[in-house]
Amino acid sequence: MEITDIIKEENKVYSKPELLEEVHMHYCPGCSHGVVHKILAEVIAEMGLTEKVVGVSPVGCAVFAYNYLDVDWIEAAHGRAPAVATAASRLWPENVLFTYQGDGDMSAIGTAESIHAANRGENIVMIFVNNAIYGMTGGQMAPTTLIGQKTATTPYGRRVDLNGHPLEITNLMAILDGTCYVTRQSVHTPANVRKAKAALKKAFENAIAKRGTSVVEIVATCNSGWKMSPEKANEWMAQNMFEKYPLGDLKNV
Amino acid sequence: MAKIRGAITVNTARCKGCNLCVVACPTKTLALQPNEVNDRGYHYAYMAEPEKCTGCCSCAWVCPDACIEVYRVKVED
Question: What residues of A are in contact with residue B6 (Cβ under 8 Å)?
Answer without folding.
Answer: 6
